[in-house]
Design a protein that fits this description.
Elements (H helix, E strand, L loop, with lengths): L2 E5 L2 H12 L8 E5 L5 E7 L2 E4 L4 E11 L6 E8 L5 E10 L6 E9 L6 E11 L5 E9 L1
Parallel strand pairs: 1-2, 4-10
Antiparallel strand pairs: 3-5, 5-8, 6-9, 7-8, 9-10
Length: 143
């Protein structure tokens, strides 16, 4: 009898292998599939929300870092998707640390006098060579 399990990370797979090898059943073989995670990056922003009057501006600091053993190139600047009409985002300064460091980027968000009033959810996207994109959300309230 073979038991087949799928585990989302390598640590869980190793624990499963140890548990299977410790079995006292005569034919308790296990087949373990480890889904080793692809190279990753992490993205965080500060602040995660802002309230701006029409004609005003705010700044957001985005930090892109490597996760685990990932050593690929981080690609800046971050992208802001879903900006409402009349809102622009421009990178102001980018600080790059050599591997295994990351990128810290200040983004200026300008709100025109005609931008739509309300709360808008904006996607912030970071990219790296050989890794899946990392995204997070920023909430912009225009008054």
């Amino acid at each position: 009898m073979h038991r087949r399990h799928s585990y989302p990370n390598l640590v869980a797979a190793l624990i499963a292998v140890l548990a299977c090898s410790d079995s006292t059943a005569p034919d308790a073989g296990c087949q373990v599939e480890a889904n080793v995670p692809s190279p990753e990056i992490a993205l965080s922003i500060s602040p995660t929300c802002a309230s701006v009057t029409r004609g005003g501006a705010t700044e957001v600091v985005a930090t892109i870092s490597r996760v685990g053993a990932f050593s690929g190139a981080l690609i800046g600047p971050v992208e802001l998707e879903g900006l409402p009409t009349g809102v622009t985002a421009d990178p102001q300064s980018v600080t790059v640390s050599p591997p295994p460091g990351g990128i810290s980027e200040t983004v200026s968000i300008q709100v025109s006098a005609t931008a739509p009033v309300g709360t808008h959810s904006i996607t912030v996207r970071a990219r790296a060579s050989g890794a899946q994109d990392a995204t997070t959300r920023f909430s912009l309230t225009i008054r």
